[in-house]
Every structure is written in structure tokens, then in C-alpha cells.
């Protein structure tokens, strides 16, 4: 029945387009793309695992679920604040920019609540928020438009993917309008590769583009995001095997050794796990780690092992930054001995794979993640990741490491 409805909408939309009406809706899902749905950050196995963990009182999911449920994003009377134009100048945070990010997180929060409880009221609230924005939004403008569209776009895609593929009550025409919003008001913002910008920009746009590509069932978008991932990640997280200097971002202007050092905020000594923004602050390194892990996790659900290509970079970066964030003295060769230790709760997804699936011991990353649990949201694009990907840190002799690491509450 749903396929017939979608086909009817497609045909009528195409006819309307021929006479100059609204653009046609998207094709039915799962045509030619080969994508697995749901498959943006979460798949059916992960959804079932988090539901089981909450139902059985396992930690860290139970505490994380409680925190999410008590947040303002979970309110029964949450009201979206859509804007036609989201204008985001650098170093400013106008109401439109804040409102868009918060509404996207609210939609994702309600989608997760539905995922856990199966109460359709939560799905209806998620739909109401997404519908409100897709009926109004037309464009992003000003200097931070690409980053803003990446933060919110990645979250919208997660919410839309969960609702579209686990809930039967989203009318086809409304889901199609949301599809068009992501296609036309977000993806275009990621078209320019910003080689000379701080790398968290490009990595966050890669995360968003990959998520939207899966939601739209457009393999070309997904494949382009994979290409950009492979180009940018080695140019952001350093390993000594790269040589005496970090890899320069493809297409950028940092070509000489001095230009590369300047791009890395004046750092002259490079050690395993150093990031391009380490000497700016650890906060932005956290954003980059989260975005990289999001993209690799989505790719993992689609059968592409990006984790395998960057595993050692992620491990080394997490351990280097976590140990100093936890208080280990910083040598003067690292950012003059005074980096800004401002990393947030951005490690859960990466640890879920490295520690949970692969069993790699990461003592500093594990301690830092545990100290920040249950992680909530940064109000940008990281939300409820202790709930969705939190991994216990005990021994794990069994083959099913994900299940093994979900520990029962004492």
C-alpha cells in the first residue's frame, strides 16, 4: 500500500511539474541505491539494542535515556520556530540559527523517544517539527551558512531517517516536501570544498552530506561524501607515518612547510594524534572527531569500511587529547604547553566502534567518556550519543562485543 501511495505521488508530481507547478517529489525509497534503511548513524540492530538496554535497565543507556526524556527537547508541547531564510554571520548566533539547530535536535529527540517507546505521539511530534520547517525554509545565507546547514542538516537527516523507516503515519506528500528541503536548502551549501578553512567545517559537511545522501537514496551524493572523507581525514588527524609534516588539504593554499605550520596554528612539533585544530582548542577537535565518527558509522551501516582506513588516526587522536583533558601535564612542544582543554562529550560513536566492536583498549578515551556521561547534546549537532552508542568498558571475551559491553545497572 505504501509503495502504491508513493508511486501515485510520484506520477502526480511529475505531471504537475510539466505544467510549471511544484517540483516533483522524490522517487520511492530503495530504488537502485542499495542503501539499508534505517541507516543514518543507527541501523535496526542498534535500535533494537538500545531499546533492550533501556527496557532491561542497562547502563549507560538507562541514565542517558532519563536525561533525554527530561530535556526541553522532549517536551510534549515543544513548538518549532521555522524561518524562511536562516542567515548566520560569523561569530554571531541570531535566533534563526539557534532555532533551526534546536528544532532539528528536538525532532531527533522525539524520533528517538518513539524508537524506544513505540508511542506514536512522539513520532507525530517529530513529524510536526519537520513539517513546520519544510513548509517554510528556502535558504541559508551569510558567512556561516555552510557550517550552520551542516550542523542542522545532519540532525534533520537522522530524524527523518528514523521516522520515515520506522513509523507508518508520516503522509507521503509531507515526507516528500521534507525530502525536497534537504535536497534544495541544504546540499547546495556543501558543494564548495573549503580546503583552507579549519577542518571541522569540511568534516561536518561530509557528515551531513553522507547522511542526507542516504536519506534521499542518492548514491552519487553518498559516494562524493566518501571521496571527501578520504581526502580530508588524513589532512586533519596526523600520524608520524605521514612524514615530518601533516598532509595538506587537497586544493588548499597551504603548500610550503611554513604555510602548513601556520595552518596548524603555529605548531612545529608533530606527534601521533595531533589534530589541525589542537592548538586552537580541544573543543573543535571534538567536533571533528564526532563528525568523522558519524560519517564512518553511517558508511559502516551501508557496507563501506571507512573506519578501517582511519582507525589508527582516530585512536591516536582520542588518546592524545583525552589524556591531557583528564589532567596529564602538557609538554611545551604541544601548543606551547597551554592548549585550551575544552573537549566536550564527542567520543561515544568512535569508542563504540573502536572499543565496542574491535575491542581496542583506549584507557584515556574511556575515562574521559565515562566522566561526561550521560552525554546530552551540544546544541549543535551531537545529541544523546551515550544513549545511542554508549559502550560499557569492562572485559569483553565474547564475539558480540556490542552486546557484551552493554552492562547491567548494579
TrEMBL record:
<dbReference type="InterPro" id="IPR008929">
    <property type="entry name" value="Chondroitin_lyas"/>
</dbReference>
<feature type="signal peptide">
    <location>
        <begin position="1"/>
        <end position="21"/>
    </location>
</feature>
<feature type="domain" description="Alginate lyase">
    <location>
        <begin position="103"/>
        <end position="232"/>
    </location>
</feature>
<keyword id="KW-0732">Signal</keyword>
<dbReference type="GO" id="GO:0016829">
    <property type="term" value="F:lyase activity"/>
</dbReference>
<keyword id="KW-0456">Lyase</keyword>
<dbReference type="Pfam" id="PF05426">
    <property type="entry name" value="Alginate_lyase"/>
</dbReference>
<dbReference type="InterPro" id="IPR008397">
    <property type="entry name" value="Alginate_lyase_dom"/>
</dbReference>
<protein>
    <submittedName>
        <fullName>Alginate lyase family protein</fullName>
    </submittedName>
</protein>
